[in-house]
Amino acid sequence: MLGFLKNGLKKTLESIHLVKASNKLVTKDLLEEMLLEADVAYEIVEEIIYYLPPSDEVKKADLERVMGTYFIYDKPELANAKPFVDLILGVNGVGKTTSIAKMAHLHKENGEKVILGACDTFRAGAIEQLKLWAQKLDMDIIATSQGHDPSAVAYDAISKGLSKNYDRVILDTAGRLQNQKNLANELEKIVRISDKAMQGAPHRKILVLDGTQGVAGILQAKAFNDLVKLDGVVITKLDGTAKGGALFSIARELELPILYVGVGEKMQDLCEFSVKDYLDAILEPIFK
């Protein structure tokens, strides 16, 4: 994953490298400048420097130890369930439907049998988009027409997953806004009906978050977490900007594990998030 992640974070790592230039010694002032260029929030940069040893020279092992504390939120243990049901949330425009397709592709590549549920019945376009992805991936999908009860779609998708021995069910949801009470009620109903279809489902509730949105994205995530307890996040669009350092803020503010990161347009450009590989990628240009 390291090479894949480094390629996806290319602009972030280049911004660090430009600041480092020919400086062989990494001082705290230089570190501050590099981290700010990588879009690590100012208050987090100050925290990182505060918790480093008092010497002005920064050692790689010390920096790695301090940075690692921002990602202490363990990934949830996966339930031993077949099918395993993921409920995917997120507002419009964050790359939710594309991320669902990428997750489905990842599971298929691992030899798992996947079925999709088009529970975003709020927009006809969302249903059609997910149908197109299912066709491209040669994958089954449960879908209906706009305005249909989304919880019924969830129930049918999970029921088929059970009866036809699927490994994974991935449910899309409407790109809801947190201040629309009707959509909040809809989400709660999907969760309730999923549990009726299969006790314990959905097994994970995952939010897709645009990694370039900063504070706005974090506020969205907190609102979703208030509605239904989230199990983790997927971060998208890290390849197009130098904002790879934003993951520190996301992890700290949400207190949720980052499960996947999207770093490109292709189906293969989504991977499980590894704290070690992420830190290795960030640290390399700092100490190169």
Count of strand segments: 8
**Regarding quaternary structure, how should these chains be classified?**
single chain
Overall average pLDDT = 89
Beta-strand level of the residues, as a percent range? 5-15%
Strand arrangement across the biggest beta sheet: 3-2-4-1-5-6-7-8
What profile does the largest beta sheet have?
Answer: 8 strands, mixed
> What does the radius of gyration come to?
20 Å
List unreliable stretches of 5+ residues: none
SSE order in H/E notation?
A: HHHHHEHEHEHEHEHEHEEH
Helix content: 40-55%
Tally of individual helices: 12
Structure class: alpha/beta
How would you describe this protein?
- The protein has 288 residues and is of the alpha/beta class.
- Helices cover 48% and strands 14% of the residues.
- Strands 3-2-4-1-5-6-7-8 form an 8-stranded mixed sheet, sandwiched between helices.
- α1 packs across α12, α2 runs parallel beside α12 and α3 packs antiparallel against α4.
- The chain is elongated, with a radius of gyration of 20 Å.
- The two termini are 20 Å apart.
- The mean pLDDT is 89.
Keywords:
288 residues, alpha/beta, 8-stranded mixed beta sheet, 8 strands
How do the helices and strands line up, and which of them pair or pack?
Elements: H1 2-8, H2 10-20, H3 28-37, H4 42-50, H5 60-68, E1 84-89, H6 96-109, E2 114-118, H7 124-136, E3 140-142, H8 150-163, E4 168-172, H9 181-197, E5 204-210, H10 215-227, E6 232-236, H11 246-254, E7 258-262, E8 270-272, H12 275-287
Parallel strand pairs: 1-4, 1-5, 2-3, 2-4, 5-6, 6-7
Antiparallel strand pairs: 7-8
